[in-house]
Amino acid sequence: MSIMRGTWPRSCWYSVGLILVFNSLFLALVLLKPGTPHQFVVSDDVGQALGWLLATLLCFVGLTKPGPRTRSHVDSILTTPLQRWIPILLAAGIFCQFIGQVVYTYLDARNMVDFPSLADVGYLSTFPFLFLGIMLLPTRPLSGFTRARVFLDGFIVITAAVTFSWFFVLGPTMLQKSGSVLSTIVGSAYPFFDLVLIFCVIQLSFPSSDPVLQPAIRLLSLSFIVIVITDSIYDYLTLQGIYHSGLQDIGWPIGYTLLGLAAQALNLARTREMPDSEAEPGKKYSRDAIIAASTGLRALLPYALIPAVIALTFFTWRKGVDVSLARGVYFGEIALIGLVLLRQFFTIRETIYYNKQLRQVQQEVHSKNQALSEANKQLEEQATQIAAAYEQERHVNELKDLFLANVNHELRTPLTAVHGYLELLQEYQGQLDAPSEANFINLAVQGCDELQQLVSNVLDAIQGDSQGKAPQIEALPVAGVVEEVINLFEPQKRQEYHVEVNIPGTLAVMADRQHLHQVLLNLLSNAFKYAPKDTTVALSAQLRDIPEGEGQQVCLCVQDAGVGIPPAEIPVLFGKFVRLRRDVVGPVGGTGLGLYICKQLVEPMGGRIWVESSGIVGEGSRFYFTLPAAPDISRQSERAGQERVTLAYEG
Ligand code: ADP
């Protein structure tokens, strides 16, 4: 149950009810004044004593054993062991008042009242306990300027109160000629202690205490104000010699029972579980409270008494009162003016200080916002990357499916052909004429070659993915290697095309022989596959300077005059399992691995591969790839001029 949120436990409401009933009865007593005057005075005394006893008892409602911290008190507001004694100190203070009143009642009943008497010992003992209790209340740290300003506020109020007290109570009491020294001291102690209580109220109104304690603190302040007012009226009436028991006495039971209720509220706050935001009592600035206190009507409170002091000064000056009293009032007035000026100075400094803090906080918020937006950007980038990775994964899966379907189809075609021709040879063994037999055997071998090529392509692609064997680089004559590769094709195939080779005889590259073979083989077989018969397939090579100045490169080109490649599909052509849409559904078979393998082989040798094509039927395509030129031979070639090997494989 939280007293912060305005929901008081039932015990509190019972206490409030009890206080109301008691004070109503007391009010009835002082208004009706039953019995003889003496009987009324005694019953007034008894009523007050009962009020103090009730207030003492209220302090113990909800009180748990003070002493070492128990588990449930770990998060309590009143953290130090001493602070846990505050309600008991308040109870002790009220109880002293009760004792004093019992003695006073006894003396009053016997008409033995004297001043000072033993009762004053009880009454005056009250104040140290109350003062100690208030001083032990927890506070929160405040900034230097705020502390100075709050201190000055208190000082202004106390100076005004002292000035008034000096004029009306303290001064006359101290200056009175009649009575002993002891009676003067004891008599002055009361208004002095009332000033101490005013100081306590100021201390309580500091915006530095924990918000959880606010209800208790408000009750404490209220009770002290009521007590001080009642005391002051009593002192004044006594000084004037016109005091009689009566209505003004109601102030004491009201003030002290409220004090008891405040102690009860403190007991509640003590055992209250701390919300997270307030987990560190006393450790942080109570900014809201400070701001509330430094703005609006509350900020004007310290000035409220100043007009009254000015009026008092004016009155003192005009009426011509006792010199000592008048001097005290003038002194108080001057001190007040000085304090107000000083307060103004600290208020300005405080405003500057908080403005600076505000700017700092704004900057912090700004940089945090920036960090947040950067983090957001990063998150967005990551999300895009994840989406791309997902897309890639999906694409790879699609390719896998495509590959399986393709390989299945591509393997079956030559396998069926081989199987078919071998079956024919087996069935008609000895019956076939020699040319037919040779033709069937030839076709079966051709099927086997196709199968071999297909399997090796698949293996190359897989190998390229997994280990990527390092190429064995050596200087190779380009024309020689090209010739070897062309000769790998059957003469019949070569005869179906006009194969032209235009390569300088001394041109050499730094490459892996097998890799170069494979690349040329793939490009040439593609040209034979995708270009119609009786068209030209041209192979050329030339030296090129590369812009970075890292030596020279040889650029080889395989050109055909086929259907070409649509430019839109060129960027993806060297990917794994990529076939042109046209060929996926067309009659020419393939796995979409040949060009991918070429790229995997050319790049580790320090080269690059690409294709140029307009996509117009008949204009064909030009596949280029570069390789580092072999230094010595290229220099020779420069010296010897462009001695070219021009070959035509026809007929
Ligand atoms: P495959 O020929 O086994 O399908 P490649 O990787 O060698 O695989 O070729 C990929 C695709 O590029 C081919 O399917 C074909 O569509 C297209 N292509 C390759 N070379 C040529 C060419 N010379 N002319 C037209 N299209 C070609």
Question: Can you characterise this structure?
Answer:
The longest helix has 105 residues, at 323-427. Strands 6-7-5-4-2-8 form a six-stranded mixed sheet. Strands 1-3 form a two-stranded antiparallel ribbon. The chain has 20 helices and eight strands. Helix 5 (144-168) packs antiparallel against helix 13 (323-427). Strand 4 and strand 5 (552-559) form a beta hairpin. It has 651 residues and is of the alpha+beta class. Bound molecules: adenosine-5'-diphosphate.
Show the helix and strand layout.
Elements: H1 10-32, H2 37-58, H3 86-109, H4 118-136, H5 144-168, H6 170-175, H7 181-205, H8 214-240, H9 251-271, H10 287-294, H11 296-300, H12 306-319, H13 323-427, H14 434-466, E1 474-477, H15 478-488, H16 491-495, E2 498-504, E3 508-511, H17 513-530, E4 536-545, E5 552-559, H18 581-585, H19 594-602, E6 609-613, E7 621-628, H20 631-640, E8 644-649
Parallel strand pairs: 2-4
Antiparallel strand pairs: 1-3, 2-8, 4-5, 5-7, 6-7
Helix pairs in contact: 1-2, 1-9, 2-3, 2-9, 3-4, 3-9, 4-7, 5-7, 5-13, 7-8, 8-9, 12-13, 13-14, 14-19, 15-17, 17-19
Bound molecules: adenosine-5'-diphosphate (ADP).
Residues 522, 526-527, 530, 560, 562-563, 565, 573, 578-580, 583, 590-596, 621 line the site of adenosine-5'-diphosphate.
The shape is rod-shaped
- What would you call the structural class? alpha+beta
In total, the number of strands is 8
Radius of gyration of CA atoms, rounded to a whole number: 54 Å
